[in-house]
Predict the structure.
Amino acid sequence: ALPTAMAAQLPSGCLKLNTLVKAVQSDGVRLADDTFIPAQAVVVATDGLAACRLLNLPFQVGQRSVTCLYY
């Protein structure tokens, strides 16, 4: 629901899905094929380890996972 609501507010054609990302930088995204896509903001929606790799941050081993249940 939330991703759909966020995507609905964006201009047509600005989302790139199912694309391997090498790194998230302060001014955009570097794809696996070294293509650079400039961006003012990037949503990193992945697990903690992958997010740390993309953002070039150290991984904290003691992290806790969270599960949200909606009824």
Remarks:
- Strands lie at 21-25, 28-31, 36-38.
